[in-house]
Write a structure and sequence with these properties.
This protein has 138 residues and is mainly alpha-helical. It is 65% helix and 5% strand.
């Protein structure tokens, strides 16, 4: 059951060819490296180099059909804000994590999000301002 919950949580990340950091996976699942290893051992999670993972599109689609707990989304938001605010001038790191950041921002734009979730999204955008300008996205 724990690994299943972890897989559902990981489905928030974009599917391969995109990858996501182990640190982000641990933050979103609230789990352990051992549980990520269990998903990897049975072929549901793929390695994308040291400290990085990928999920196949079919697995992401299946897991998203089953639904995701709102707290998982909140944990992703906390991780994204922490990353972008601590490393707002480390453009190489932000570029590497861009698909995860973008997935969070796009999902946070949905109606029905709480005031706290909207505040978290706005905080991430404020911290990303210089990075977005440098990429011509603002």
């Amino acid at each position: 059951p724990e690994e299943r919950a972890d897989l559902l949580a990981l489905a928030l990340f974009p599917a391969k060819p995109h990858s996501f950091a182990e640190e982000a996976a641990l933050a979103v699942t609230g789990g352990s490296v051992e549980r990520l290893d269990a998903l990897w051992d049975i072929g549901l999670l793929e390695s994308s180099g040291p400290g990085r993972y990928m999920l196949h599109q079919t697995i992401v689609d299946y897991a998203r059909e089953l639904g995701t707990d709102l707290t998982v989304w909140q944990r992703l938001g906390t991780w994204v804000v922490d990353l972008v605010c601590k490393h707002k001038h480390n453009y190489a790191l932000l570029e590497q994590e861009w698909t995860t950041i973008e997935a969070y921002l796009e999902g946070s734009d949905e109606s029905g999000k709480s005031e706290h979730e909207q505040s978290t999204m706005h905080q991430a955008i404020i911290c990303l301002q210089d990075f977005l300008q440098a990429r011509g996205l603002q």
